[in-house]
Amino acid sequence: MSVLNGKKILLGVSGGIAAYKTASLVRLFIKAGAHVQVIMTPASKDFVTPLTLSTLSKNPVHSNFFNQDDEDAVWNNHVELALWADLMLIAPATANTLSKMANGNCDNLLIAAYLSAKCPVYFAPAMDLDMYKHPSTLSSFTSLKQFGNIMIPAENGELASGLSGEGRMAEPENIIAFLEADLESKLPLRGKKILVTAGPTYEAIDPVRFIGNHSSGKMGFDIANEASKLGAEVVLVAGPTHLKVKNQSIEVVNVTSAQDMYDACHLHFKNSDVVIAAAAVADYRPKEVALQKIKKDSSEFSIELEKTKDILSSLGAAKEKQFLIGFALETENEIENAKLKIQKKNLDLIVLNSLQDEGAGFKKETNKVTFIDKNFKIEPMELKSKEFVAIDILKKVVSFFSK
């Protein structure tokens, strides 16, 4: 799956013949799973129509500060557009537009959005070869790079003037490849292997019944999805759940019982850099599993239970270089019990949940956690969606590797 999947891309189109290539560019962005909004300079509409780019992007195209045909003259908010974007790409970037960007000459909606952007900005120059090498253009390149903008170099080939040389805007496929390579190189967990466990385990009583719990698996799935977004190679060991991963690059290992999860974790543990054990694993299982459905033929029924293998303890005992994160769901003496768990299971960090907190626990969209590290530093967090809790957890992982 492309690193552009889910990205919000603001495409600025300026008035050069290469503007016709933006139709293919938008199509490729959409194919990669990106969300696209387009701002066109007035001159660019001579080369490609707003209707074409609107149809391909599935969004209205913006060109002026307000829609002149609209009786209410609704303002196109350049700040809102700029803050919406995860990245901004100006392609083609003509000599005129580059000069305005470099000098802050804000006379159109595209430049206003550019000057308001807080996201990474890429630009793909397109002009004739002598314009491309002119000192004023080279000065614009230098200034824009110093501002932190990223240049997608022009290519050699036949130009609109009939001349041949440097100045052709990079082909849409090459722009996509450039963006993907640049974004991937900056992902903080690129090259790291992360093992995540999620969901409940089911311990069979007979072919029909089982002992389980109310875990939906959402916390673990959100962690896996976020880790993948940050560039990690993720293996997700998941107990029974209806959830699906958002990124198909995540390797999902479906398991049922605690023993299944134990085996899967130990299979992948040695090659992992990080383990985040978010699953709610059964502590006990029936000592004997009936081969046939147990009949309701008495007023009382008892099941003899035995302990399951402690997955987290076994991983802590085998730990070498791994950064090991566990979860604790407590109802009393939360901090003290979590600290004991860190020591007994050789953890680097524990994520403490308390059922006493409103909005936390199983089958909830939110969670309220407290981080406790192996040095017993305690960091309580606010109630957040589980997606944002996952982001906080992965920030701890990123911080570990940036030491």
From TrEMBL:
Function comment: Catalyzes two sequential steps in the biosynthesis of coenzyme A. In the first step cysteine is conjugated to 4'-phosphopantothenate to form 4-phosphopantothenoylcysteine. In the second step the latter compound is decarboxylated to form 4'-phosphopantotheine.
Keyword Ligase belongs to the record: yes
Protein name: Coenzyme A biosynthesis bifunctional protein CoaBC
Cofactors: FMN; Mg(2+)
Stretches for region Phosphopantothenoylcysteine decarboxylase: 1-193
Binding-site list for CTP: D283, K293, F327, K341, K345
Keywords from the named record: Decarboxylase, Flavoprotein, FMN, Ligase, Lyase, Magnesium, Metal-binding, Multifunctional enzyme
Span of domain DNA/pantothenate metabolism flavoprotein C-terminal: 189-399
Gene Ontology molecular function terms on file: FMN binding; metal ion binding; phosphopantothenate--cysteine ligase activity; phosphopantothenoylcysteine decarboxylase activity
GO cellular component: phosphopantothenoylcysteine decarboxylase complex
InterPro entries named among the record's database cross-references: CoaB-like_sf, CoaBC, DNA/pantothenate-metab_flavo_C, Flavin_trans-like, Flavoprotein
Pathway terms, separated by semicolons: Cofactor biosynthesis; coenzyme A biosynthesis; CoA from (R)-pantothenate: step 2/5; Cofactor biosynthesis; coenzyme A biosynthesis; CoA from (R)-pantothenate: step 3/5
Chain spans, region Phosphopantothenate--cysteine ligase: 194-403
GO biological process: coenzyme A biosynthetic process; pantothenate catabolic process
Reactions mediated catalytically: N-[(R)-4-phosphopantothenoyl]-L-cysteine + H(+) = (R)-4'-phosphopantetheine + CO2; (R)-4'-phosphopantothenate + L-cysteine + CTP = N-[(R)-4-phosphopantothenoyl]-L-cysteine + CMP + diphosphate + H(+)
Cofactor note: Binds 1 FMN per subunit.
Domain Flavoprotein, chain residue ranges per copy: 7-178
This enzyme's EC code(s): 4.1.1.36, 6.3.2.5
Pfam families to which the protein is assigned, alphabetical: DFP, Flavoprotein
Record-stated family: In the C-terminal section; belongs to the PPC synthetase family. In the N-terminal section; belongs to the HFCD (homo-oligomeric flavin containing Cys decarboxylase) superfamily.
